[in-house]
Amino acid sequence: MKHFHPLFALLxxxxxLAAHGIASDLVAEREQVKNALQILNAWHTAQPEPxxxxxxxxxxxxxxxxxxxxxxxxxTRIMEHIQAFYADEMERxxxxxxTIRLRYDxxxxxxxxxxGNHPTAHYAMESGSEIRExxxxxxxxxxxxxxRETIFILCNLATWDxxxxxxxxxxxYYAGGSFRSGTAWQLDSPELDTLNLKLKKPMIxxxxxxxxxxxxxxxxxIGGMAHELGHALGLPHCTARPDESVxxxxxxxxxxxxxxxxxRGEGKGSFLTLAHALRLASHPQFSGSVKGLNLETRAExxxxxxxxxxxxxxxxxxxxxxxxxxxxxxxxxxxxxxDYDATTASAIPTTNGHFELRSEALRHGTVGELRLFPLHVNxxxxxxxxxxxxxxxxxxxxxxxxxxxSIQTRQQLQxxxxxxxxxxxxxxxxxxxxxxxxxxxxxxxxxxxPIKATQTPANIVSDKKSFPLTNFxxxxxxxxWGEVVYDRVPDEQLLLESGGQFFETxxxxxxxxxxxxxxxxxxxxxxxHVGLAAGHDGSVEFEIKGDGRTLWKSEVVQSSVTVPxxxxxxxxxxxxxxxxxxxxxxxxxxxxxxxPTLQR
Length: 600
Description:
Elements: H1 6-45, E1 55-61, H2 71-92, E2 104-105, E3 108-109, E4 111-115, H3 128-141, E5 150-155, E6 158-161, E7 166-169, E8 174-177, E9 182-187, E10 203-206, E11 210-213, H4 214-232, E12 249-250, E13 270-271, H5 274-281, H6 284-287, E14 298-309, E15 312-322, E16 325-334, E17 343-347, E18 354-359, E19 366-376, E20 391-396, E21 402-403, H7 405-421, H8 425-432, H9 438-448, E22 466-468, E23 476-478, E24 496-498, E25 501-503, E26 506-510, E27 513-518, E28 525-532, E29 539-546, E30 549-553, E31 557-558, E32 562-568, E33 574-581, E34 590-599
Parallel strand pairs: 1-4, 1-5, 5-9, 7-10, 12-13
Antiparallel strand pairs: 2-3, 6-7, 8-9, 10-11, 14-15, 15-18, 16-17, 16-19, 19-20, 20-21, 22-34, 23-27, 24-25, 26-34, 27-33, 28-32, 28-34, 29-30, 29-31, 29-33
Helix pairs in contact: 7-8, 7-9, 8-9
């Protein structure tokens, strides 16, 4: 009788347990898919509206360049490989025959050829909109409305030196879209070919990624095509949960760099998360149905409960929607790092709309945001990409225990925000009167009865020792985007929320912004916090000036933190608050001066 070393026995046990865990996860995932398909199929087979929607591929080149040799055959291989990747992933979850749809010219891919109006030197990574405009006449002549279809533009703006094995590019490389339409910009280059994915040699010099194998180079850029296509189809970023990492890297996370790694024995490759497979299940290209494509959608989540269960967050509710919802997808997104590090969870509603989901994949010691997307049977996701009305902040303590104080605050305020958004001031006031928590009530009161400032800090007559700065009129105010507003932000969210906290008073200051107040030497101090509005991943610098002299300046502030400040104003005649964009530009720079308070 053979005896095994205890270490081998332990490893064998771990292997069995891991295999059992993977099998159990697959069974649970397929059960979700089965229940989702029952809802989807029931709706689409009642008065069906079949329709073929295709991915329309454009090959664009500047006026002084020709396309690489045999590009049509090579691009056919690439796009069929990506098509097969999506098909295999959907089938793995129990949804066969669902993938992107390609059109052909004979046996090869149908490509719409566009010659740019300018030479290569004219274009840059930021030229996506211009390049798209140059493609529109060719697409229109082919009977394609680019605003109602999914467009994939391959830009011939890369340089490949086959002798020196060197690569550089200056191409647009991004995408966006929904179930109705979308556009992805990609680069093309002659060495990009699925036949090269398996090659560990030769080594090349990639201008962006350094010295890598030709195979890895292909993984990155063909994977990038698959990733950006996901965005054009309406998928946001996400990463793999720890329990999903056995499958590889999530395509819509860093999986754009691992696509095909398994062919070289360099990793597990890339996979599509269940959450994203569920989103694609109703996409017209994947479902073959155009029923309800242009329907307006409505979704409400009633009896919503977001609770801490040990070191996990559990979400339950009843979704009421038109057209019906076949799944609810959740993103648990730690602040900072954009949404690349968001993990997902999903649930299928019962016949009465009840759903329940839970996540333990929570980053310790961080604040984050939970986003819920009800998935409608017509393909809509009650908000596309990262945008949704169902957003809830949370805080994970260092030991992994969720602190849901911010969520509870938001839940109490959300009905008031909804009433104000709908123009129902009376209802908002009534709901405010029912709030028991003093801090939350004060926030609500500012929203429903905003202060109408009429005085400057220089001419206020009062015995009070401190005042919110937003009680006063500035002598000058301007913001980089939107309108000048106080004690709220200028979108449907309204709430002053930053770094997992809510604030009663504040100044919206999208960079570049300037707010000037006359003091006439009557105030001794100024304090508060600065931060970025929740849901916006910009980066800004804040500066306080007194009589033209810098009194305080922050480091670069990003979305994961709020920063306190306190300055002396003794003898200061004029106060200036400046919000500056940083080197990454002014995009998403929703800066805020939070609870800004004057003292004397």
